[in-house]
Amino acid sequence: MRALATAPTTSEDIHRRVRALVEADGVTQAEAIRRVAAQMGRTPSSTSSAFYAGKRAAEARDADADERSSGGRRQARSG
pLDDT confidence of 8, banded at 50, 70, 90? Predict the structure, then answer.
């Protein structure tokens, strides 16, 4: 059964926007956060917090996808 796609959260959207600016324009992450904050009418501080929340969500989603594709959790090797 296929999971339904959900709309990105604000933090996921901010993470995507910041990464796109860093990759496309070659600006620093801090500058990209400031630009996204200005575009969205947010403070740089709240935008930075949302960026890192979105980053954690993306990392968790990627780890979950890796776990599903490998057939479950991998056991740690001893020795």
Answer: confident
